[in-house]
What we know:
Helix content: over 70%
Oligomer: single chain
Low-confidence stretches: 1-20, 472-483
Number of strands: 0
Shape: globular
Number of helices: 24
Amino acid sequence: MRAALTLLLLLAAVHAEHRGRAYVRDKVCQEFKTLGKENFRTLTIIANSRKYSNATFEEINHLVHEIVSLAETCCADDADPSCYDAGSSALSAKSCSKGSPFPAHPGTAGCCAHEGLEQKLCLAALRHPPQELPRYVQPSNEELCQAFKKDPKDFADRFLYEYASSYSEAPLPVLLGSTRTFLSMVSTCCISPMPTACFLKEKLERKSFSLLTLMSNRACSRFMAYGKDKLTFSYLTSLAQKMPSASFEDLFPLSEDAAEVFSQCCDSVAEDCMQKKLSEHTAKVCAALSARDERFADCCKGKNLMQNYFCISALPPALAPKLPEAQKPTSEQLCSEDAARHTKRYLFELAQRHTNIPDVFLSKLYDATENVREECCFAKDASTCLDSKRQKMGKELPPFLEKANRLCRQYTELTFLDFKKRLRESLTQTMPAASPELLEQLVEQRADFASTCCSPNSPPLFCASKVSSELGDACDGGSCLLG
């Protein structure tokens, strides 16, 4: 996709300086002239809103203005050959100046201690952490048209900023396609004699774009937070909870396939990478599981594979079957070359038996397995180390699992008001001396935690920081695997 390639060239321009200043200038100018000023500017807004996802609109606007002005001035036919290098150096200096109008970053001061190319490379590498809870909320049709008619350019700029910063982990081609179709919809329907019917038709037509943006942002956020191996585990346990009757051998290859899709496409500039690969993956899931589970079969009936994937992703956990106790890996298995597969199998079996425990809790157990292996497998007496961990978690793991399972099962099964009522009753029993004010505070805190983190698509980093405070410090000693 030419537009996506252009955007990456724009972002990588400073990084490429070691290949020669003329090379960077020529590449940027070639793309500026090919796209034209407005398309170049649009891509610059998306790129920098995505990169600095916590910046204000005004900060992004300042930066975009400077970048576009630099390209416009230095790509003119009569521009001095040194124009681009001098201009990019001035941009770096402005970033380091007191009261800089550009996006703030904690690492800026450290970068500004360097000089020349080293400073530019350092500044170019800065990036805000993604918004784990996207803040963009689409206004009503009337509000959209009111803002569009008031100032079409400002409306488009603000939408690009809000949307790209909210879904900053979605692949670039996905973001570009989604924003383009949205702005086309607004510009078409807001001048239509029948705007309501127009919006309905256009929203249905761009539904796949919307779902692809949402799902790829979630998946790529998880991929960036977890890495490929842990994402394989996360996908595996999610499938196990939706279909606990399936075996490890049934689901593990599908989990590996999903992780491979996201490793290939989250950073890809190919126009259809995510849509094509995710559709192929969905077809594999449907072929393997739809004949074995009615809920999967219902999701796989549709002709639109993206909507089928979204349906499967949104399936609630199944009822946990009555199964024998999960088989814990032996000490030899934990420290063998195939240890990763043994640990995944054990945690898969825990997920089958505790279907209401969402990803963020199971991930805490996954991290603990790594701690066990690092601490014990290279110890002088690995067996004694592992035995001590096993004994400790024989006490800690069952209540941890039960507490998490109960909290999220109640959240899933009850209405929100009934859930809060149940929380209040439980806390009153466990904390009889607490004041009404403290109890209410704890109820709100626990309810907010459940509403965010009991979802199968809960934000991984945000919820990981909350697990210990809500469920205690079980597993922090690195022995959860050995329950």
